[in-house]
Structures are given as structure tokens and as C-alpha cells.
Amino acid sequence: MSSVAALEVFDRRESEVRGYIRAFPTVFDRATGSTLVDAEGREYLDFFAGAGVLNYGHNNPAFTRALIAYLERDGIIHGLDMATSAKQAFIEAFERIVLQPRGLDHKLQFTGPTGANAVEAALKVARQATGRSTVVAFTNAFHGLSLGSLAATGNSHYRTAAGVGLDDVARLPYDGYLGADVDTLDLLEKMLDDPGSGLDLPAAVIVEAVQGEGGINVARASWLQRLRELTAARGILLILDEIQAGVGRTGAFFAFEESGIVPDIVTVSKSISGSGLPMSLVLLRPEVDVWKPGAHTGTFRGNNLAFVSARVALETYWADSAFTDAIAAKSALLREELERIAADHPEQGFVVRGRGLMYGLACDGDRTLAGRISKAAFGRGLVIETSGAFDEVLKFLPALTIEEDELRRGLAIVRESLDAVLAG
Ligand code: PLP
Question: What start-end ranges are recorded for coiled-coil regions in this protein (predicted)?
């Protein structure tokens, strides 16, 4: 069956809301590491990693083995938020491998399994803990599409779908929004201290250390440090949304680590389970953990299978520095090649942005270019997506476990695709 014919049932029966299927129109069937295989046996190199869910690659054998063993011994699959041995082992590993070495005393809240679920919980608890309603979010932020998280998301494409008011969020410019020479926090500071500014004292500020969906915008460490100081001095809670930039994506476990700040609340999802199974958590400083028992409940909180692979991921990759060293080497390779591509096309004015294995090639000169490169790359066997308010940024999000030769091969496809698109 041709791939067009195989997609017929999706066109006929699946809602118009479907998205990625349109950019990558084939029926995927199997995957290992950084290779996807479609139903016709065609291979694709993956520079998308499930939008940041598959930081350790597809079907990582260490996780698959542990999941099969757990299933075969009839381990608990669903347990609401009851204690299970899988959850216990995950919490202990997270405490030992992630929290303690970083001096973090945060409590863990397990929310529903999507990133938006974690953001909703974070916003709700921040409002409860402070008794205030306003939350500051930034330009080009992406925090999810449920109503509370959508109010904090910037992109009008998503906001107009809400159908109701998206309230209680004030928007301020992210780092770099007004150019590298402007410190956008001057505006926040002035507004916070000016009773005439119209900005009520917020409950919280929510921020991504590196904006993923918003176009791979990187906040400077000094900007995050100042944000931490401004918020701490006024009793405003600081929420770091690490859903996409966390779990090693920018080179350290948390993207905020480089700045040395300690957030009050951290949202974690996407790659935390390692295997791609849905799982989310919210980290809360003990004094922010003001929840009454069961006050934010739900049926699917704590995915026990996900706990199993999440624990194995922490033990396999985060017990020493070998993994972060390997990410740093691949990050240098990625940045160098992207800068070469930019230098080879000065007429396009490409800008290279990012950290770790989260990079963007911003094609602001022609906002259709990134989408056309992505399409041409797919035809050549590479899955790569775009981001930014105009989809003008080609977004590089390979698995952190990608082999260097795979990274080089994918970059060669990008170069070829760019040349083909420019040749018209
Ligand atoms: N926050 C950030 C930073 C994200 O990148 C995303 C998704 O891309 C979300 C929240 C929402 O996560 P989900 O799509 O799982 O609801």
C-alpha cells in the first residue's frame, strides 16, 4: 500500500485537529534509538525525539527489559496515588540521584501524565500558597493547552482556540525579546514597584530556561539570576517549566542548573519516564506544598510502568558525569555545523541558538523556509520539526543518546535539503 493510501483512514476518521501527521505523512511502525521505520520498511533518522519525550532514544533496551520484567511479575500497573514498590523505588532514586546532589529539598507531586497537567497543578498551588491570582508569563512561552496553562502560553494560534477568556496572566518580554542589549527585567522590576503600572503583585512568575516551542530562545544565566532575586525579594514564587528543556536536554539534568538558581516550583514531564510512557511531576519547596490531602486529585496520577523506566533511566544515565560529557561533545558538533551552514549562507541571515542538544536555526529572512526544509528533509529520510511563532525556526532535538555519525548524517540531510529548497 502506498503511504498516501495508508493514510486514508486517518483522513476519513481522525479529527481535523491532527497535527504532526500532516508534517510527517507516513504510518510509523517501529523504532529503535534514533531510527524510525514506517509500515513500508522505510527508515527515518529522528531529529525530533517525540518533541523532547525520547531523550534516551526509542525503545532503549535497558528500559524495555525492565518494563517486560515488571509486567511479567504482575507488578502494579494502576494504583491511583497509593504507595507501590515501583513508585517507592523511583522516589528514592530521584532523591538520591537528582535532588540531593543539587541540594534541592523539594517535595514531589505526581499529577496527571501530561505536561499541561503539571503546569495546571503548579499554577494552582502557587495561587493557593500566596492567596494571589496574577501570574507573570513571558512572550513566546509555551506551557500547554489546557485552559490554565494556555493562559500562560503566548502563541495566538493556540490562544484563539480557547473560546473563553484566558485570565489572570500578565505578559512580559522574555530575555532577548527587545534585542541583546535590553535587559527586559528592567520593565518587570519597574512595574512591580510602581502602583500605577497596572500589574497586581503576582502569585508567581512562570518561565522556561530555554523556550522550546517559542523558537529556541535561551535565557541568559544572569537574567534568570536577576529574575530569582526580583521574585524572592517580593514573595513571588518562581516556577521553572522544565517540561521540554529538562532531563538533560540542555546538557545538565535541569536547564536552570547553569544559572545556579533554586526555583520554588519545577514542572517536569516529557522525558522523565525515559521510555516515552506518560508521566509528570511537580517539585515543590516544602513551604509551597500547601495542598490539603486529595485537593488536586485524578485517576491517572503516577503511572507505575513509567516509574519503572524512569528509575532505570536515572540509574543508567545520571549516576556519574559520563552522559553529560557525551552530550557536551555532541552539542559542540551540532553547534559547529549549524554555524557553518549559517556562514555558508550569509544572504539568509540565519541565527543559531540553543544549548545542549536543543538548537534552532532561525530563518527570519524568509519565514516559510524552515517549513520547506523540514518537508524536503522528510523526503530524504529525516524527521525534523519547526518552532517559533511563525514556524520560522528549524528545531534540532535529537535523542541525547544519538551516535555522532547519526548526528552528522542528519546534519548532512539538512544541508542537502536547504540547498534543494534554495535551488527551487
Ligand atoms: N511546557 C513546555 C515547556 C512544553 O514544551 C510543553 C509541550 O511541548 C508543555 C508544557 C505541555 O506539555 P503537554 O503537551 O504534555 O501537555
Answer: none
**Residue 243 beta carbon below 6 angstroms from any ligand 1 atom:** yes
Atom from ligand 1 closest to the CA of residue 213: 5
For the segment 152-177, what is each residue's pLDDT rounded down to a tens digit?
999 999 999 999 999 999 999 999 99
| For the CA of 116, the nearest atom of ligand 1 | 16
Does the structure show a pLDDT above 90 at 113?
A: yes
Is 80 exceeded by the pLDDT of residue 76?
Answer: yes
Same domain, 13 and 97: no
Q: Are 124 and 98 found together in one domain?
A: yes
Instruction: Report the pLDDT value the prediction gives residue 5, as an integer from 0 to 100.
Output: 79
pLDDT tens digits, residue range 286-297?
999 999 999 999
- For residue range 363-385, list pLDDT tens digits in order: 999 999 999 999 999 999 999 99
Same domain? For 117 and 26 the reply is: no
Same domain? For 358 and 417 the reply is: yes
Going from the Cα of 240 to the center of ligand 1, the distance in angstroms, rounded, reads 12
Give the count of domains, the chain: 2
Q: Is residue 67 part of a domain?
A: no
The answer for residues whose C-beta is within 8 angstroms of residue 127's C-beta and 6 or more apart is: 133, 135, 203, 204
Residue 87 lies in domain: 75-317
Q: CATH no. for residue 411?
A: 3.90.1150.10
- Between the CA of 119 and the centroid of ligand 1 the distance, in Å, is 8
- The residue whose CA has the least distance to atom 13 of ligand 1 is 115
Cβ of 398 less than 6 Å from ligand 1: no
**Domain end position, chosen among 264, 298, 317:** 317
Asked if residue 372 and residue 345 are part of one domain, the reply reads: yes
CB-ligand 1 contact for 213 (6 Å cutoff)? yes
